[in-house]
Amino acid sequence: MRVILICVAALVLAGCKPSLEEQARAGLRSKLKDAETAQFIELRKDSLGRICGQVNSKNSFGAYAGYSHFYVWDKLVHVDDDDSDFKLAREMCKNA
């Protein structure tokens, strides 16, 4: 009986989906200098699975750089750098 309960608990925990913050942090890991210090606001996920929001993390000097808009969509990760591609993404994220 005890073994069955342990197996059921393991299956339940394995089925838990990561939170939006965990998903965003994983996606942004390669783009941020210090992903572990990332602070998120306005996180949301749209029907296509895009995660949008704002992120603030420490830069090379160890100071927080200020909030930047970002989106994570599957393997595509983009942090706002005022280019035209991100302006389109920002519009898409408004509808999320």
Automatic annotation (TrEMBL):
Organism: Sphingomonas kaistensis
Name the record gives this protein: Lipoprotein
